[in-house]
Amino acid sequence: MNSGMIYLDERAESRNEVVERGSRAATGFAKMGILEGDTVALLLRNDFAFFEVLQATNAIGAYAVPINWHGKSEEVCYVLNDAKPKVLIAHADLLKSIRNQLPTDIYLLVVPTPIEIQKRYGIPQADCQVLENDLTWGEWLADFEFWTGQPKRSRASMIYTSGTTGHPKGVKREPATPEQSIAYAALFRQVYGVEQGVRALVAGPLYHASPNAYSRQAFGLADILVMQSKFDPEETLALIERHRITNAVMVPTMFVRILKLPKEVRKRYDLS
User: Fold this and answer.
1) pLDDT score at 101
2) Whole-angstrom distance between the N-terminal and C-terminal Cα of the chain?
3) Using CA of residue 240, residue 243, residue 248, residue 253, what is the dihedral sign?
4) Predicted pLDDT of residue 184
5) Any residues with CB less than 8 A from the CB of 83 and at least 6 apart, and which?
6) Which of 36, 37, 189, 244 is spaced 20 to 30 Å from 172 by Cα?
């Protein structure tokens, strides 16, 4: 795996730090009784903890289930009841509306909502407090040693559909064979340009299928991986200039918003 940096807005951590915390979490998940093929739910905005959970589930062969945090409480709880995860890792503020509706058998680990996310989304500080009886993600994983088990076959994230024909459906793929993994990497080189040494930008939320798959590939190959906690068109141009971004994944709406910036604003940034 390429050594490099992961950025979230103005914060930065080394890839090794994220990998090491993910390794500890893998040990913790295994001791919790999470087995190969089981599910682990994430109710997280773009944050370092998201990648730590992905690293842990990859190691033990479990499915990460990213949940759309824009969903109403009943929609979030539907996914939790359907996917049957043994543990939920969630940002503190996102728990406010669902705490009393969580499945009784789910283990909860809370990630303190970062200050930059609080500011960007205008979240009251009171909603971001970790409650007295909550166990935080960082406190929990610090108790475990690095994962020493045999690596399991890779599983993609279990993404839930938008539910346009009723309830959302979880897309649960079988673990990839070595040949499929090679073909998958080749596809990402062809479609997204993800290969060794790229400088990658993730502008969309990681619960979406495309940013999620793109990020999983870029995490191990990119020199740097830059996340935005919330898309902002001018900031995107500034990040491309500052980090010399070579690859990004965005949807048409984002391009439209960039093109709607005044020409003098767009010309302000060196995108070469």
Assistant:
1) 93
2) 27
3) negative
4) 82
5) 39, 41, 65, 158, 160, 170
6) 189
For the range 36-39, what are the long-range contacts, defined as Cβ-Cβ under 8 Å and sequence gap of 24 or more? 36/60, 36/61, 36/62, 36/152, 37/61, 37/62, 37/63, 37/155, 38/62, 38/63, 38/85, 38/86, 39/63, 39/64, 39/65, 39/83, 39/84, 39/85, 39/86, 39/158
Distances (CA, A) of 5 to 112, 158, 189, 229: 22, 26, 21, 16
CB 39 within 8 A of CB 63: yes
Spatial separation of the C-alpha atoms in residues 242 and 252, rounded to whole Å: 23
- Residue with tokens 């909860």, as numbered in its chain: 108
Separation between Cα atoms, residue 138 and residue 49, nearest integer Å: 9
Residue spans of the chain under pLDDT 50 = none
Residue length of the chain: 272
User: How confident is the model at residue 155, as a pLDDT?
Assistant: 86
Query: Residue 107: how many CA atoms within 13 Å on its side-chain side?
Result: 14
**Which structure tokens are listed for 33?**
């009784």
**Is residue 105 helix, strand or coil?**
coil
Sheet containing 107-111: give its strands across.
63-66, 39-43, 87-91, 107-111
pLDDT at 65: 98
- Determine the residue type at 35: L
pLDDT at 3: 63
Determine the pLDDT at residue 245: 96
